[in-house]
Design brief:
Radius of gyration: 45 Å
Oligomer: single chain
Distance between the termini: 116 Å
Strand content: under 5%
Number of strands: 0
Structural class: mainly alpha
Number of helices: 3
Helix content: over 70%
Organism: Actinoplanes italicus
Family: Belongs to the DivIVA family.
Keywords: Cell cycle, Cell division, Coiled coil, Cytoplasm
Protein name: Cell wall synthesis protein Wag31
Largest sheet: none
Shape: elongated
Main location: cytoplasm
Order of helices and strands: HHH
Length: 189
């Protein structure tokens, strides 16, 4: 695992539990800052060295081109004027072949990079789809549980309503039975 200066610099240690022994967090933080600074310097130096290597390679390639062009120029100067058109054609063919080689190399690198980008995009897409399916499954499972709980609550409320209705009917029946169904006879006057 590579470690960057930013990771070292952002690292923090927990304080030890009360009464426990541990490191002095100020000293640890100061050391980590020194390490992060040094890593940052080394990273910058590595970037500079990589750029220098790239520039040296470009310089060497340019010098090779200059030498080839000088050789062609000397060759062109030594050509019999009657063969000048033939020489120009050969030179043009050489430059065309070189351009085709460079173009093929650029296309090959672009194709490789495109394939990597597509592969990365497909991987990310499949991860997003898998995550979405997982969340969907969790939510559906949650809905099933909520539905079951709601149906159980509805059944319990229906039972309670029936019991209360039956209790009310029973109480009303008892009260009605306790009342004299016939009115008291009043004597005629």
């Amino acid at each position: 695992m590579s470690l960057t200066a930013a990771q070292v610099g952002s690292n923090a240690f927990r304080e030890p539990a009360e009464g426990a022994r541990g490191y002095n967090d100020v000293q640890v933080d100061a050391f980590l800052k020194e390490v992060a600074d040094e890593m940052g310097r080394l990273e910058a130096e590595n970037r500079d060295l990589a750029e220098l290597c790239r520039l040296e390679a470009e310089c060497a390639e340019a010098q090779e081109r200059v030498e080839r062009l000088r050789a062609e120029l000397e060759k062109a100067r030594s050509v019999d004027p009657s063969r000048l058109v033939e020489f120009a054609q050969q030179t043009a063919d050489q430059h065309t072949a070189e351009a085709n080689r460079v173009a093929a190399d650029v296309l090959r690198r672009a194709s490789t990079e495109a394939a990597l980008l597509v592969s990365d995009a497909e991987l990310r897409a499949s991860t997003v789809v898998a995550d979405a399916r997982s969340v969907h499954a969790e939510r559906i499972a949650g809905l099933v549980t909520k539905r079951r709980d709601a149906l159980e609550r509805i059944d319990a409320l229906c039972r309670e309503a029936r019991e209360r209705r039956e209790s009310l009917i029973s109480q009303l029946g008892d009260r009605l039975r306790g009342m004299d169904p016939k009115p008291a006879n009043r004597s005629p006057r």
